[in-house]
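Technical annex, item 7. During the second reporting period the consortium partners agreed on a shared format for inverse folding records so that results from different sites could be compared directly. Each record opens with the tokenized structure and is followed by the designed sequence. A conforming record, contributed by the partner at site C, is shown below for reference.
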């Protein structure tokens, strides 16, 4: 099995996601009506998810914490203009992503892709089992080496490709959600994901069966 097949999936909109969007919109309406404390519910709900995406683009915990806070401040300052044309989730992620990309362009930081995070979130099911060893100790050593190789390979991708694969593999967003966040078509998202996965597969071919 190839890396591409191992981590390939297509997430679809679910009733649960729609319910989540409706609940978020109700909270937004409360904030817009003057109950500013209600915004804390949205911060609590999405803080860790926003932080995870930002961290995987910056590989710096302090920066990720600051940028996450900045994203929520910007969202709060702009919430009065939120019309519900997209979900609050998508709108917030777009703010966080733009904030992070602006930071990266200014500072030209190295970005690292977390293979450990991929494994924890089980968005690459079967990938670890493909490592060319049966020994647990050898597998751990290879995992560390693989992380370094994956970081190196991930750096070689453009920011656009890093962004879509981070949102897809780390946070499990659907093609449609990513398209809304980055401001492009679903077809473009799929094309970027396909290229990124093929590239990573080629870069890591010596580590998988």
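Designed sequence (site C submission):
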């Amino acid at each position: 099995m190839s890396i591409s097949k191992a981590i390939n999936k297509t997430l679809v909109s679910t009733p649960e996601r729609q319910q989540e969007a409706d609940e978020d919109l109700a909270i937004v309406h409360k904030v817009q009506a003057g109950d500013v404390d209600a915004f804390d519910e949205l911060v609590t709900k999405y803080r860790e998810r926003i932080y995870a995406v930002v961290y995987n683009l910056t590989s710096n915990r302090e920066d990720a914490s600051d940028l996450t806070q900045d994203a929520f401040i910007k969202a709060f300052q702009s919430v009065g203009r939120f019309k519900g044309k997209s979900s609050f989730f998508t709108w917030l992620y777009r703010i966080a992503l733009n904030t992070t990309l602006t930071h990266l362009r200014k500072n030209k930081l190295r970005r690292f892709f977390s293979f450990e995070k991929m494994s924890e979130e089980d968005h690459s099911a079967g990938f670890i089992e493909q490592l060319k060893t049966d020994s647990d100790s050898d597998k751990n050593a290879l995992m560390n080496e693989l992380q370094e190789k994956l970081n190196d390979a991930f750096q070689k991708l453009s920011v656009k490709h890093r962004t879509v694969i981070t949102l897809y593999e780390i946070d499990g967003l659907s093609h449609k959600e990513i398209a809304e966040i980055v401001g492009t078509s679903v077809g473009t998202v799929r094309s970027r994901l396909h290229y990124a996965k093929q590239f990573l597969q080629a870069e890591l071919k010596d580590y998988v069966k």
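The chain has ten helices and no strands. The CA atoms of residues 49 and 171 lie 7 Å apart. All partners now use this format for quarterly exchanges.
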